[in-house]
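Collaborator request, handled under Task 6.
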Amino acid sequence: STPPAAGAAGPPSAAGAAGPVPAGALTALLEPWLPRQRWFAHKGTDVTVTGVGLVPLAAAPSSPPEGPAGEEDVHVLLAVVSTRTGDGEEATYQVPLTVRPSPVPELEHAVVGELAGLGRVHDGPHDPAFVRALLHLVSTGGGAGTLGVPSLHGVAPAGALPVPAGTRSRITRGEQSNTS
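Structure tokens returned to the collaborator:
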């Protein structure tokens, strides 16, 4: 099945190889997707996305190349998403995303939706491109973001183990309990 498409809406946006990712267009994709996520705090309530800010992360080199083809065209983003419930309660979420111009069979399970003219939006932690970019940012102490937009900085604490180049991660499937 084809994910829902969202039209392009105004700034702010995150520039990438295939052009900017419009933050406004992500609103239409995230609003129905967020309540289905296990980590979403307002399950069972009417939720409206009131704002989306985008922090583009620089793609990290992969050696040897791994992951789905077309890595050079991937937008790697951290979306800062503001929400409001029907009762007026507000919350802000950091949502890792990637946008790929072509469908990737290995990432079908992680599709959030589709942006017209840009491609499929994926839940970032499932995409090797996002994981590499985040680990690279942390291991190098790099930064992402611009003036007036949320920013992100990698910090490796003193004595921390280094993050080797090419490090991979995977999503743990299943439920967790935060009760003791």
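The cover message to the collaborator said: "The first strand starts at residue 5 and ends at 6. DSSP finds two helices and ten strands in the chain. Please let us know whether this matches your experimental observations."
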